[in-house]
Amino acid sequence: MYGSKLKLLRIIEIMRETSEQEPLTAVQICSKLRSYGIDAEKKSVYRDLNLLKEAGYEIVLSEDNKKGYYLAEHLLEDWEVKVLIDAVSQMQFVSVGSSKIIVNKLLNTCSMTTKKVLKSCTILDTKRKTGTTAIKRDIEIILHAIKDRKKVKFQYGDLDEHLEYKLRCKGKFYVVNPYALNLKDGKYYLLGNVDKYNDLAFFRVDKVKNLAEEDKASRSAEELFGANADLKIKEFADMSLYNYSGPKIILKLEAEADSITELVDYFGTNMNLIKSGNKLIAELEVLENEGLYYWLLQYAESTRVLAPERVRNNLLEKLQKIRQRYEIKE
Question: What does pTM read for this prediction?
Answer without folding.
Answer: 0.65
